Amino acid sequence: MSDDKTQIDALLYVQEQIADASSLATLAKLLSTGLDWEKGEVFTLFPVDVPRRIIPGFRDALPRSFFDTALWLAEHLLSYLQADDNPLVLFPNLTLAASSPKISSLSNVWSYGNEVYHVLLAGKHDLQYLDTVQRQAANAWLEICVISRLEHPSDGSPRTAVTRDELQRIALAAQGVIVSAYDGEGYLFWKRGGN
After folding, report:
1. What's the distance, CA 23 to chain centroid?
2. Cα 107 vs. chain centroid, distance in angstroms?
């Protein structure tokens, strides 16, 4: 995002979305209070021909003629999962409870109390699988994705409960936080910087 006002507005929007989810997901609460948000920048991805006036309208829908931002997100996550040594991508599921019978049909899920987190670790993934995980975690009002790292690869076994301390470490190690924007048709991505 090019101008300072848009960057500040984008950062505030990301922080608002994380704060809104704090009562539903402990990880969101830990991100909200534990990350130094000023040490990063927010960006979004648009085709070159998107009118610049649309970019700051984070709460507005995108015109339908634009590209599939969910595919961009899946491509970005796939790239991260293949490039990092100990990658971890978490999608808090803000509508599914760990006590739900639906949990048994899902793979790669962690729980904390009654909270559900869809987990992606290093491994062989394809865009279709990433899209499936993303859709399983998505809800109508907010989607959150946390890009982090594992301290030790052995920390990440699928279908397991995690502790608050583990969620705290994941939050503090977050390299990126992605939230839905543009009425669910796009994303804003906070990326940790070197500031």
Report:
1. 17
2. 18
Question: Residue 75 belongs to what domain range?
Answer: 4-192
Other CB atoms within 10 A of residue 141 CB? 13
pLDDT in tens, 58-109: 766 666 555 567 777 888 889 888 887 888 999 999 888 999 998 888 878 8
The encoded tokens of residue 100 equal: 């739900």
C-beta neighbour count of 135 within 10 angstroms? 12
Domain count, the chain: 1
Residue 147 near residue 80 (C-beta atoms within 8 A): yes
Cα Rg, the chain, nearest whole Å: 16
The beta strand positions in the chain, using DSSP E, are 40-43, 87-93, 109-112, 115-121, 144-149, 160-161, 176-181, 186-192
Which of 150, 119, 149 minimizes the C-alpha distance to 137?
Answer: 119
pLDDT at 191 over 90: yes
Q: What is the pTM of this model?
A: 0.85
